[in-house]
Write a structure and sequence with these properties.
The complex is a heterodimer. Chain A is of the alpha/beta class. Chain A has helices at residues 72-82, 96-105, 117-120, and strands spanning 5-11, 13-16, 19-26, 31-32, 37-38, 43-44, 60-63, 66-67, 88-91, 109-111, 126-130, 135-141. An eight-stranded mixed β-sheet of chain A has the order 1-12-11-3-7-9-10-2. A two-stranded parallel sheet of chain A has the order 4-8. A two-stranded antiparallel ribbon of chain A has the order 5-6. The two termini of chain A are 16 Å apart. By secondary structure, chain B is α/β, with parallel strands linked by helices. Chain B has 17 helices and 14 strands. In chain B, helix 8 (209-223) packs parallel to helix 9, helix 8 (209-223) crosses helix 11 (287-298) and helix 9 (239-252) crosses helix 16 (391-401). The longest helix of chain B has 17 residues, at 17-33. Chain B starts with a helix and ends in a 7-residue tail after the last helix. Chains A and B meet through strand 2, strand 8, helix 1 and helix 2 of A and helix 2, helix 7 and helix 16 of B.
Chain lengths: 143, 426
C-alpha cells in the first residue's frame, strides 16, 4: 500500500520569479559559495558543513542563506552554466550574496515565509515552488 | 523599485546596450533584495578576471573579452561591447601572477592572455590593483563614501575601519555598478543598519597578529553576520591587525561591519556604536574562547610534515614583508618545503627596491602577487600539507585544495619552512 501523503502550503515573498519542482535538500546551515561548493557537481565542500559531499543539483535548496566570500554569486552563476544548479532556492536570511546569487542562478527563489520552512519541509519531500504566486507546496508522507 | 527618469531611460537603452543590461541586472537584484531605489557609488572594486577555465568555456576566442564581460559582469546572454567605467574602478585579486606564472603552473600563453585582458579592461577604466587589499595600495575611501566592493575582507575593512559604506557585492553587481555608478540601497548603505547588534567582551586581549586573527575567527562564529562591538581593554591595533581580524571574522561568519570604540570610524564610544540600544546578545572572548578558535581552525589537520608554507592572506603590507625578510635574512628553508609569500604587485615593486624580494628568494622563498592559492588553486607540485598564518586561508584551503592546512603565527610558519615540521601551539 502506498504511503499516505499530505500537502502543506507555505507563502512567502518572490525573490526570483518562476515555477519549479523537485525534492527538497534541507540544511539549517548557511552555505559558502566560493570555497564552499564544487560548481562542477553541485556538492557542498566546506569542511565542517553537515551536508559535506552531497549535491543540491536539481533539488529545491532549503537553507538559511549565504555566507563567506563575495564569490558567492559567481560560483552559483557557474552552477547554472554547468547544469548543477538547484531547481529552486528557499531561504530565510536576506543578504546581498544570496539575492545576487539567486538572480544570476536564475532559478525560482523565495524568502519571508509565513511559516518556518525548516519546520515544514523535510529533506526529500516533494516541493513545488511557484515564486510568481508566492506559494510553496510541500507534499510529504503524513506523520 | 522607484527609478529616476535617467535610470528609466538607461533601462530602456538610451545609454547603449551594455548599460541597458547593467540596469536590467541592478533592477532584478534590487527587487530581489526588496530595495526601494538605487544610489550613486563613487568607487567600485570587482573582478574582470578572464583566464579561469570556467570563464573561458564556450568562447569563440580566448580573448573575446566582450563576451566574458557580458556573461559574467552583466549576467547578459548576448554579447555587448564593454563601455568605459563611469566611476573609479579597480580589479581585486585574480588568478595569475604574470611574473611567477610558471611556478603557479600556468603556461606563457595564459600569462599573455592575462596581460591582454589587463590592457583591454584597463583601457576601459579598470585599474589592475590586482589585490584583495586595495586599501593597502592607495585606494582608501573616506568616511561616508558609498562604494560597491567585492572581497569580504576588503568590505569589512572599508566599512568598519574607514567608515565607507558597502555591502558585499558580487562579480555581476560590481560590473553593472562600474558602468552605471549605481547600486541598490540596502543594508550597510543605510545609517541605522550600521549600528552594533552584539557585544563581545574581550577578556583575552589581542597582542599579536595571530591573536587578532583568532579573535576575528571567534567573533565570526559568535555573531555570524551580525555587527559586533568589541568591548574591553583592547590594545591599539595596527592596520594589519584589523585586516587580519576582519578577514577571519568574514570567513568563519559573514561579518561585514564591526565597532571598536576609539579605534574604528563610527564608534567613539560604546553608546555611539550601539546607537543607544542594548545589544541583542553578549559573548565573552576569554582564554578558553581563544583556544577554541585555534582548535576549530586546526581541527582538519593532523599530519605535521609540512611541505608548503603560504604567507600573505589577505595580501601582506610592506611592514609584514619587512618582518618576513628580517626573519629569513641569511637563512635557508628546508629543501622539502616551498615558501610562497603574497603581497600586492605594487608592494612587491617596493620590496624589489628595498631588497626584501632578494632576501626572501635567497632563503628559498618566492614573492607572489596578484593571486593566492585559494583563488587560483595553485600549490607547488606534490603539496600534501600546508601551513599558513592566515585564518581565512586555513578556513578555505582544505575545502578548495583537499589538503590539510595548519594555522599559526608567522613565527610558527617560518619554523615550519625551516624544518618541514609543524610545531605551532598556543
Amino acid at each position: 500500500m502506498a504511503a499516505e501523503t499530505e500537502t502543506v502550503v507555505i507563502r512567502g515573498r518572490c525573490v526570483v520569479g518562476g515555477v519549479a519542482e523537485g525534492r527538497a535538500f534541507v540544511t539549517t546551515q548557511t552555505i559558502s559559495g566560493w570555497g564552499g561548493i564544487d560548481a562542477a557537481t553541485g556538492a557542498i565542500t566546506e569542511m565542517r558543513h553537515e551536508r559535506r559531499g552531497e549535491s543540491f543539483a536539481g533539488r529545491v535548496l532549503v537553507f538559511p542563506g549565504a555566507k563567506g566570500s563575495s564569490g558567492w554569486s559567481h560560483y552559483f552563476h557557474m552552477t547554472r552554466r554547468l547544469g548543477t544548479a538547484p531547481a529552486a532556492m528557499l531561504f530565510t536570511i536576506m543578504t546581498t550574496k544570496i539575492a545576487l546569487g539567486a538572480v544570476v542562478t536564475r532559478v525560482p527563489a523565495m524568502t519571508d515565509f509565513d511559516r518556518d520552512p525548516f519546520k515544514v519541509i523535510r529533506d526529500g519531500d516533494l516541493v513545488r515552488v511557484d515564486a510568481d504566486a508566492g506559494r510553496v507546496e510541500v507534499t510529504r508522507v503524513r506523520f | 523599485m522607484r527609478l529616476s527618469d535617467r535610470e528609466k531611460a538607461m533601462l530602456d537603452g538610451a545609454e547603449g546596450p551594455a548599460r541597458q543590461r547593467a540596469m536590467d541586472l541592478l533592477v532584478r537584484y534590487g527587487t530581489a533584495l526588496g530595495a526601494e531605489r538605487l544610489i550613486p557609488v563613487t568607487n567600485v572594486a570587482g573582478t574582470w578576471s578572464s583566464t579561469t577555465p570556467w570563464v573561458q568555456a564556450d568562447l569563440d576566442a580566448p580573448d573575446d573579452f566582450d563576451t566574458i564581460f557580458s556573461r559574467f559582469n552583466l549576467d547578459s546572454d548576448d554579447t555587448v561591447e564593454t563601455p568605459q567605467a563611469v566611476v573609479s574602478t579597480c580589479q581585486l585579486i585574480h588568478g595569475i601572477d604574470t611574473r611567477n606564472h610558471a611556478l603557479q603552473g600556468f603556461s606563457r600563453e595564459k600569462a599573455e592572455l592575462q596581460r591582454k585582458s589587463e590592457e583591454f579592461f584597463g583601457r576601459r577604466g579598470v585599474q589592475w590593483a590586482s589585490t584583495c587589499t586595495p586599501y593597502q595600495v592607495g585606494n582608501v575611501p573616506v568616511k561616508g563614501e558609498h562604494l560597491a566592493w567585492m572581497e569580504s575582507s576588503a568590505v569589512v575593512y572599508a566599512n568598519a575601519v574607514l567608515g565607507a559604506r558597502t555591502n558585499v557585492e558580487g562579480r555581476e553587481s560590481t560590473g553593472a555598478a562600474s558602468i552605471t555608478g549605481l547600486i541598490p540601497d540596502f543594508s550597510l548603505h543605510i545609517t541605522e543598519n550600521r549600528l552594533a547588534t552584539h557585544r563581545v567582551r574581550v577578556e583575552a586581549a589581542p597582542e599579536t597578529m595571530m591573536d587578532w586573527g583568532l579573535l576575528g575567527y571567534a567573533a565570526g562564529e559568535m555573531v555570524v553576520d551580525d555587527i559586533p562591538l568589541l568591548s574591553g581593554a583592547i590594545p591599539q591595533p595596527r592596520p594589519m591587525h584589523l585586516k587580519h581580524f576582519g578577514a577571519a571574522a568574514a570567513s568563519s561568519g559573514g561579518v561585514e561591519m564591526y565597532h571598536i570604540p576609539g579605534v574604528t570610524a563610527e564608534a567613539s564610544s560604546e553608546e555611539e556604536a550601539l546607537g543607544g540600544r542594548a545589544p541583542r546578545e553578549e559573548f565573552v572572548y576569554d582564554e578558553a574562547a581563544r583556544r577554541r578558535a585555534f582548535e576549530h581552525i586546526n581541527a582538519q589537520a593532523s599530519n605535521r610534515s609540512v611541505d608548503f608554507v603560504m604567507l600573505g592572506c589577505p595580501h601582506n603590507s610592506i611592514e609584514q614583508m619587512w618582518q618576513i625578510a628580517a626573519l629569513l635574512d641569511g637563512r635557508r628553508i628546508s629543501s622539502n618545503v616551498a615558501l610562497w609569500v603574497h603581497t600586492p604587485r605594487q608592494i612587491r615593486a617596493l620590496c624589489d627596491d628595498c631588497g626584501y624580494t632578494a632576501v626572501i628568494e635567497r632563503a628559498g622563498g618566492h614573492v607572489m602577487s596578484d593571486s593566492c592559492p585559494a583563488i587560483n588553486r595553485a600549490t607547488p607540485p606534490g603539496t600534501e600539507v600546508i601551513a599558513t598564518d592566515s585564518c581565512k586561508q586555513a578556513h578555505y584551503l582544505p575545502a578548495i585544495t583537499g589538503k590539510e592546512t595548519w594555522f599559526g603565527s608567522l613565527e610558527h610558519c617560518i619554523d615550519a619552512a625551516m624544518t618541514g615540521r609543524w610545531s605551532g601551539e598556543l
